[in-house]
């Protein structure tokens, strides 16, 4: 059930991003989420599970992609029974659950690239990024690698071990580092490498359908119940606590975001409410199993405020993060990953064990920084290589006329009776009138 909920999050993200986009780019941004769903699902089955959770670790950074290629020996054993996984039930369930995480993590990045990149390049990037960034980070954090709780982790090297595990165990319950910090960092790097949209920051299209965005946020919130609750890997009290903490943080973050909007802009907006919910969900993700509902309210409220302030960074520093991936996912993800050290139920800095709390703060900061650096360096290499080979940008005329028509030969809305298609297969009717350019129709 949790895997199904997380699966829903990628189409929900398509709605969330789609509503924030202009009417000339809504289909492209939604297709980027669906494209990631297709590409990453395939590569996860082929080598993603093996790279993330294989037993043949390469220096604690990534596992051998060939060991379990195509899920070899991971579904049915020699006696015809389903292979039991590490959590006491069929391994195939965890494979499906983790596949959905890889998909949504990759799809998140697309929000930084709205309205200006080739769809084909995005598809290649999706497979490359999942392979070279997401799978290694999943291995490092959840697969027993460098950022985990094992005796071979950075935490163990810094603070020692006890019973074969690190004395101070890093906390990433459901993906603060693996999902949000890595995706937010990748979004920042791509925004810098690919460059700005025409007219940024003075002339930008407004969100074309805010009800889409609110519906997407609602479905993301619903899906996040499985994202965090399912990360307990059992239908038990920990899952219930993660669910309740998730609800608390998202609600408080929405209020925090709207508070800043009201103080700054004299109005709370639907876009702000939807974005605040997502910022709260991002914030609580690494901490969902380690906090109480009360401390989740505090963590989430601060996360909503930081996320609201964080979306303004693109204007201050001049990078075009189209749909605010950096502000919502990187900023809130960093706060959630590091902030958990303050409020953790056991050993947090506000508890009586100050020494442990300080060590936990150090290790949480360290895993956040390592995740950022790893994602930034590898993403930059991928982005440059693709830029030199396939190319990232559509041409200026195509950007002006709308990326939907250029990349997909279709538009979301037949607003002037000129949707130039003879049938659903997408072939163009050569006798149909040409859709006017952006300069001919006022947005």
Automatic annotation (TrEMBL):
PROSITE patterns: AMMONIUM_TRANSP. The chain crosses the membrane at residues 6-22, 29-49, 95-114, 121-142, 173-194, 215-235, 241-260, 267-288, 294-313, 325-344, 356-386. One of its GO terms (molecular function) is ammonium channel activity. InterPro entries: Ammonium/urea_transptr (IPR029020), Ammonium_transpt (IPR001905), Ammonium_transpt_CS (IPR018047), NH4_transpt_AmtB-like_dom (IPR024041). It is a multi-pass membrane protein. It comes from the Bacteria. The keyword Transport applies. Keywords: Ammonia transport, Membrane, Transmembrane, Transmembrane helix, Transport. Residues 2-413 form the Ammonium transporter AmtB-like domain. GO terms for cellular component: plasma membrane. Its main location: membrane. The keyword Oxidoreductase does not apply. PANTHER family: AMMONIUM TRANSPORTER MEP2. Belongs to the ammonia transporter channel (TC 1.A.11.2) family. NCBIfam families: amt. This is Ammonium transporter.
